[in-house]
Model the fold of this input.
Amino acid sequence: MKTLSTLTFANSYCDLPDTLGTRITPQPLDNPFLVHFNPLVAEKIELTSITALDPSFVDVFSGNATLVGLSPLAMKYCGHQFGQYNPDLGDGRGLLLGEVITSNSIKWDLHLKGSGKTPYSRTGDGRAVLRSSIREYLASVAMEGLGIATTHALAIIGSETPVAREKIETAATLIRVTESHLRFGHFEYLFYSGQHAELQQLADYVIEHHFAELATTDSPYAEMFKQICHRTAIMIAAWQAVGFAHGVMNTDNMSILGLTFDYGPFGFLDDYDPHYICNHSDYSGRYAFDQQPSIALWNLSALGYALTPLLDKTEIDHGLEHYQHQLQQQYSHNMRQKLGLTLTNDVDSVLFSDLFQLLQQHHVDYSLFFRTLSYITMTDLPHSCSLFSELFPCTSDLKKWLDRYQQRLLLEPNDNQRLAVMQQHNPKYILRNYLAQQAIEKAQQGDYKLIDQLMTVLARPFDEHKHAEVFAQLPPHWGKHLEISCSS
Ligand code: AMP
Ligand code: MG
Done:
């Protein structure tokens, strides 16, 4: 394990054409202090946790000091925001500080979010507030705990620098750690600005660093696109199965590695509502929960179009078809695990659609329903209606569905194993908006205990945590209706 000064850094992104970014140093914060540190993320980059106690950690990651080996740079990219192309984007409040190379040669980007103005800040102040930094920090832990590909967050640094949002808040930084910060929008930028030689260089870079096994195939660019489609499908299938809504699926927030990226007004479903809109500023519901699979396809089409200097139409279509096929397969796989079905049967699709209809009709808590179901043995199912009393009125519809589910389970080989599988695929703990909100309010008063406690359960959301039952309960009424805007 290493300290900050003994980490090995690289800056491979800086070797790409200059048009892809601007070197710039972070702007310092007033009286920075450590809010929270994630030792599991530190472990990924082989950084010892003791480093968090070192004052230089806070200085470097608040932008108040530099570190030999880092070469901070604001990335240039563009993208489609709510369907409209915006040529004017880029890292407006974050910097790629550098890349850590681990002993087994894995490259991890270190990105400082909230580091001050850059040439791409437009009218923004270049800052991130403590509130949104905590949301991203906890979401990164929660998604990883759920087994969903995501960026990670090493730490949050707080400060006394005032920042104007709906009201005055304080600025913070978040140290994001991930394999790559490349977005669909990087390719869109080079395509729409006519920089097609640079576009090819970027594609070569992506293949070299992230899809090396494709370099020797007959058509590496087509294979790269197919891989991006594949990973996006796996990610979206996981979001839909777990009930995660991203909220701002603009192409500049889509990772070329299929990572859940750029957490803003995201939300996990409380009551099952396929039309759930987590982003209060999304007036048309473009990014509603049930739109995510088709929006990802739209975004992949935009990426495919941006890659036309390297791909022909058949190759693009092939990638997009792969996405649709893979999404279907993976989603069905994930949902079957949620119901503990290992065999396929003709009745399954109706069993699922009737269940979704019931959940929607009765406003049933999505995660708690599946978790409750994960404890009920096959023999107990027909008289288990009362176990759902907190979630469901005990209607004849529910009873009928439980009977049909029992009949279906008779075909399955092993009921104990089914229960174990279901408990491993139906989380007991999810990052409900109100939990994040409570952690934020405590942290704004300087109390970070709730962040600690939430991190512990969210990192292992399928386990029982004896002293944390309170986090596994139904949300309070006020907690279901929090309005989360894009402001961050
Ligand atoms: P986001 O909605 O966070 O994905 O950001 C969209 C674009 O706006 C990106 O180019 C961001 O860097 C930029 N941006 C967001 N907030 C700020 C801010 N406070 N200051 C400067 N740029 C920002
Ligand atoms: Mg963004």
